[in-house]
C-alpha cells in the first residue's frame, strides 16, 4: 500500500486562507491603482477644459473688437486661467488679429433693394488659453460685414 500524504491535513486551512488573503490583497491594490490613474485623467481633463474655455473667452473678446485688430493682452479669467491672442509661444508678446482681405458674398440684399453682392472683411482670430499649466489654442476665421462700398 502507498503512502497517503493527505492523512495529516493540519495547516491546510491556514494555507488556503493565506492564499485567499493574497488574492484579495492583489485585487485591492489593482483597484486602488486604477482609481488613482482615473483620478489623474479626470483632473487633467478638467484643467484642459478650463484652458479651452479661457481661449474661447479670448476668441469672443477678439470677435467683439472687430474691425479693430489690436492684440489681446494676457488677461486673467479665473483663479489661474488666462488668455491672449496668438499661439502658446506668443504669451509674452501677443499677436494682433489678422486681416485677410475682402470677400464678396453673392445674394446679399439690403431691405427694399435688389440683391447685390455684399463686401465683407475677413479676419483670423487666434487665441490661446492657459489654466494651471495646460494650454489650448483656438483659431477662428470670420467674415465681418457687410461693409458699405461707396464709389
Helix and strand topology:
Layout: H1 12-64, E1 75-76, E2 81-85, E3 98-108, E4 116-131, E5 134-147
Antiparallel strand pairs: 1-2, 2-4, 3-4, 4-5
Describe the structure.
There is one protein chain. A hairpin with a 7-residue loop joins strand 3 and strand 4 (116-131). The model has no long low-confidence stretch (mean pLDDT 88). The chain has one domain. 35% of the residues lie in helices and 32% in strands. With 151 residues, it is of the alpha+beta class.
Summed up:
This protein has 151 residues and is α+β, with helices and mostly antiparallel strands.
State the helicity in percent bands: 25-40%
Largest sheet: 5 strands, antiparallel
Identify the quaternary structure here: single chain
Q: What string gives the helices and strands in order?
A: HEEEEE
Give the total of domains: 1
| Proportion in β-strands | 25-35%
Can you tell me the residue ranges where pLDDT is under 50 for at least 5 consecutive residues? none
Q: Helix/strand-derived class?
A: alpha+beta
Report mean pLDDT, rounded to a whole number. Answer: 88
Count of helical segments?
1
In angstroms, what separates the terminal alpha carbons? 120 Å
Over all CA atoms, what is the radius of gyration? 32 Å
Shape: elongated
Number of strands: 5
Amino acid at each position: 500500500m502507498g503512502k497517503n500524504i493527505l492523512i495529516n491535513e493540519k495547516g491546510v486551512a491556514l494555507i488556503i486562507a493565506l492564499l485567499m488573503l493574497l488574492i484579495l490583497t492583489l485585487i485591492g491594490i489593482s483597484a486602488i491603482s486604477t482609481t488613482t490613474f482615473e483620478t489623474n485623467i479626470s483632473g487633467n481633463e478638467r484643467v484642459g477644459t478650463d484652458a479651452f474655455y479661457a481661449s474661447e473667452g479670448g476668441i469672443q473678446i477678439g470677435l467683439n473688437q472687430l474691425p479693430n485688430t489690436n492684440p489681446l493682452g494676457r488677461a486673467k479669467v479665473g483663479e489661474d486661467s488666462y488668455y491672449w491672442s496668438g499661439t502658446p509661444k506668443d504669451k509674452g508678446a501677443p499677436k494682433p488679429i489678422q486681416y485677410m482681405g475682402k470677400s464678396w458674398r453673392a445674394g446679399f440684399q439690403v431691405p427694399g433693394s435688389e440683391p447685390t453682392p455684399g463686401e465683407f472683411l475677413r479676419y483670423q482670430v487666434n487665441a490661446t488659453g492657459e489654466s494651471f499649466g495646460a494650454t489650448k489654442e483656438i483659431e477662428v476665421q470670420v467674415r465681418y460685414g457687410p461693409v458699405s462700398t461707396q464709389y
